Inverse folding.
């Protein structure tokens, strides 16, 4: 018996795993690979580069994928939603901002609306505005997020929006995490960091290697890299990355960074171009400890599904002591 | 088949649930109630009040309990460890600080050493110094803690200290949480917030009611209440509480609070005495959403164990779609 939740039917997928729409990293090839492996791949439309989005939608080919947007950024270029909807995506995945001006167009399309939230209150609002699936994202997630943690947020959101399906995001990178998310009442998992380290991800190979070598102890959530990249993120969202020399220099002194902003933004852009990740950000979450190598997305999917299924079928804590391996 | 992990044998308990040693809240009556219900009750020795500890050890009666200490505070009154060990506790539970000066005495006793950590690196160190059980505590926990989150921290610590048993702390308040912790590889759960709202807890009844009415959206981790209480906590630990008028006033302006410290500490102490929780802290974690009433500890234990066992025996995600209730 495979793992099966309400989102399997909703998206016609074999495994309840959704690719996080990592801006600039979750391209068409990665989204297609996740979908072809039985999950729901989602292209990271991010800050709205029309050419990039067109190219990556093309790159996904005939694979059934979704498209994700940063909601407050989409509000500045709302026609990008039409560009996505013209391709009849499986889902539109909106995060960070007010969804009200987009719901009607999505409701008229065949795409299901996934809304990612960071609090119980936001979950109630998204449910009221017509989300088909709520993603409850914990602050341990890589990239942008809020301050609540996955473990207590997921069951609280499940209770608040019942019977809407809730998918857990933040900190999930293996079969243990998928199984745990299901126990918390989630209908599946959104995974980013582990797919950042996939062969198909559009991240710099050096960034992938840096992630593989890192521990979750070495990540931080801050606005330092949004400032460095000149991105005007609204509060309260911050971005979780690996720590590096740049974040150690400026993370506790954003005022000092603002005083030298033009020069530091230039230095940052050059480092990013050069693949110097002592300055440029590796955008990854606390699940970094669980990411040990760069692998094809299909292998990541298979391990996660098989690992979760084995734990769910035969929970070690239900075995008689004699059946367990000695400790 | 009951839920059974390596800590069942280690502590001779029926259920792998450990009471968090909440300072001033986990007294002898609560610790005894948790132990009598099949878990491991732990008295919260906290900041080391000899009279309080003696009284609460007496109050636990013949129930087999453990004793918890704030490690950096115990270092100032190390003889309190002898006071505890004289009662032959099941466990000594140390959190927040260097354990090196205590391990030899504990190793000579019949008590098992439980060490609570907030990072993978701390877990490795505690394992090397002789901990029998590692508690991996996520930042969603109520009271003092670090910055890493339970969901990704637990499996990373499990991998780092294998085969030592790892118990999850932070965000666990019901059967879903216990089952999820076990899926992550934990050998059980440490629970604080849900027992804060127990009949037996030594918290002010108004504080318990305030917690029951609160959402995890309304908690914050800060040093504001340590300043207000005149507690000289070392970095990097902060305390998670419910937000209230006091934390909203000073949480983002610790410098301003320091400027008026004597007056504000006086005001805080008076509010605490008067049970005014618009100023005094309710020390609770993000699991607040899951705590809906004040109940006897035995009822909390029974629901948690029964809920987890039901989920583990028959995971909803392994049922065929027709067997599931419609969404």
């Amino acid at each position: 018996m495979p793992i099966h939740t309400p989102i399997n039917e909703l998206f016609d997928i074999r495994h309840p795993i959704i690719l996080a729409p990592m801006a600039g990293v979750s391209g068409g090839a990665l989204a297609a690979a996740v979908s072809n492996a039985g999950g729901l791949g989602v292209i990271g439309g991010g800050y709205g580069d029309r050419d990039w989005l067109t190219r990556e939608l093309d790159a996904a080919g005939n694979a059934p994928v979704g498209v994700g947007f940063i909601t407050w950024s989409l509000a500045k270029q709302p026609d990008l939603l039409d560009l996505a909807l013209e391709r009849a995506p499986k889902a539109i995945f909106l995060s960070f901002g007010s969804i009200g001006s987009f719901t009607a167009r999505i409701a008229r399309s065949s795409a299901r609306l996934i809304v990612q939230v960071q609090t119980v209150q936001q979950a109630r609002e998204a449910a009221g505005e017509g989300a088909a699936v709520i993603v409850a994202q914990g602050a341990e997630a890589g990239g942008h997020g809020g301050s609540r943690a996955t473990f207590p947020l997921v069951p609280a959101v499940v209770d608040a929006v019942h019977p809407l399906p809730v998918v857990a995001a933040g900190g999930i990178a293996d079969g243990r995490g998928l199984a745990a998310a299901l126990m918390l009442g989630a209908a599946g998992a959104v995974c980013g960091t582990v797919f950042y380290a996939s062969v198909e991800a559009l991240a710099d190979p050096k960034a992938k290697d840096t992630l593989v070598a890192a521990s979750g102890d070495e990540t931080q959530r801050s606005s330092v890299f949004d400032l460095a990249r000149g991105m005007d993120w609204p509060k309260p969202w911050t971005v979780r990355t690996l720590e590096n020399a740049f974040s150690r220099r400026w993370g506790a002194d954003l005022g000092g960074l603002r005083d030298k902003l033009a020069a530091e933004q230039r230095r940052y852009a050059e480092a990013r171009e050069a693949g110097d990740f002592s300055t440029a950000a590796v955008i990854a979450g606390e699940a970094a400890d669980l990411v040990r190598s760069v692998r094809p997305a299909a292998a990541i999917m298979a391990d996660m599904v098989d690992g979760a299924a084995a734990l769910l079928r035969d929970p070690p804590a239900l075995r008689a002591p004699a059946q367990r391996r000695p400790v």
